[in-house]
UniProtKB/TrEMBL annotation:
Chief localization: cytoplasm
Keywords: ATP-binding, Carbohydrate metabolism, Cytoplasm, Kinase, Magnesium, Metal-binding, Nucleotide-binding, Potassium, Transferase
Binding positions for ATP per the UniProt entry: N181, T205, L206, G207, S208, A209, G210, G243, D244
Listed GO CC annotations: cytosol
Annotated GO MF terms: ATP binding; metal ion binding; ribokinase activity
Record gene name: rbsK
The organism's place on the tree of life at top rank: Bacteria
Top-level EC class as recorded in UniProt: transferase
Record field: transmembrane: none
Organism the protein comes from: Jonesiaceae bacterium BS-20
Protein family per UniProt: Belongs to the carbohydrate kinase pfkB family. Belongs to the carbohydrate kinase PfkB family. Ribokinase subfamily.
EC number(s) reported in the record: 2.7.1.15
Designated name of the protein: Ribokinase
Residues noted as binding K(+) in the record, renumbered to the chain: D238, T240, T274, S277, G279, S283
Subcellular location: Cytoplasm
Length: 307
């Protein structure tokens, strides 16, 4: 059974397109605006769900209009909203984004209710899934509680160590797989440092260059080889959320029992599809569109064992 639990953040992204980032004390007019669902947790849960996994999303919202908007987005996509905690005081997390025509941006995030995601919620997320997927936009003690409550014999634990925060490296020895981009890998002292701690391996994502699986040596045959998966060549218009789609799709595939090369291929396709439209989540993401993209590429570009 393909059952993924995602524990993480949920935000309403409020983006404004501007001619330039305003100066201190200045008021300017936006050239356009866009509101959409966001937060690494929500993006990853939506991706796992769109990739066909039975997905529980454990997160925390406030009691406000932003929460209503986010619940509607979940309803529309038929992602179960039963596992959302409701904060009586804090506002729903929001990300306030200014984007210029040259793609420069300035972002302020109000963490709001995400900062209060409970350890009880974390423990609930840790049980009953084949795969538990987390990131670091929620309190570290909450992530730690979930990992402590996870039975490694039943549940594969994936940590997308993003954003890179001090103290997270102390959690790596309780994770099966850690997923990082190049900036995050550098923050934690490089892939080898992370690999020395995790149980099964590290995935390094490289944007439009692809992604590499580094296994812990000496485990089973399937996870034993280093694998490089080139990125799909697509017309990228907004790379926000590519890493999140990658993580969600990877979790969905691994929960189905896919091998690492298979899972990397699907995750890369999900990342690529997300870059083809604006916003952190793409409604075009589905097993069908992933299948079409996979079918379109030559065998030479498929995941390769690194020798
Ligand atoms: P993050 O968003 O966390 O920085 P990356 O930018 O490394 O993560 O992207 C994650 C994955 O998404 C990549 O490994 C790749 O498979 C895919 N991806 C990202 N950007 C592109 C792109 N421009 N074209 C095709 N695939 C992409």
């Amino acid at each position: 059974m393909a059952h993924v639990n995602v524990l993480g953040s949920i935000n309403l992204d409020l983006a404004l397109t501007v001619d330039r980032i305003p100066q201190l004390g200045e008021t300017i007019l936006a050239t356009g605006g866009f509101q959409g669902p966001g937060g690494k947790g929500f993006n990853q849960a939506m991706a796992a769900h769109r990739c066909g996994a039975d997905t529980q999303f454990h997160a925390r919202v406030g009691r406000d209009a932003a929460a209503h908007t986010l619940r509607l987005a979940m309803d529309r996509a038929a992602l179960d909203a039963r596992f959302l905690e409701e904060d009586q005081q804090a506002a729903t997390g929001t990300a306030h984004i200014f984007v210029t025509a040259d793609s420069d941006n300035a972002i302020v995030v109000n963490q709001g209710a995400n900062a209060n995601l409970s350890q009880a919620g974390a423990i609930a997320a840790a049980t009953g899934a084949n795969v538990l997927l987390m990131q670091l936009e929620i309190p570290l003690p909450t992530v730690r509680a979930a990992l402590a409550a996870t039975d490694p014999a039943k549940t594969l634990s994936l940590l997308n160590a993003a954003p890179a925060v001090t103290g997270a490296q102390e959690l790596f020895d309780q994770c099966d797989i850690v997923i990082v981009n190049e900036t995050e890998a550098a923050f934690f002292g490089g892939v080898d440092r992370i690999l020395a701690k995790v149980r099964r391996g590290v995935i390094l994502t490289l944007g439009s260059a692809g992604a590499t699986w580094y296994p812990v040596k000496g485990l089973d045959a399937d996870s034993g080889e280093e694998v490089f998966c080139p990125a799909f060549k697509v017309n990228a218009v907004d790379t926000t959320g590519a890493g999140d789609a990658f993580c969600g799709a990877l979790a969905a595939e691994l929960s189905r029992g896919a091998t690492m090369p298979e899972a990397l291929e699907v995750a890369s396709a999900a990342g690529a599809i997300t870059t083809m439209s604006q916003g952190a989540q793409s409604s075009a993401l589905s097993l069908e569109t992933i299948g079409e993209l996979k079918a379109s590429r030559a065998e030479v570009n498929q995941p390769q064992v690194v020798v």
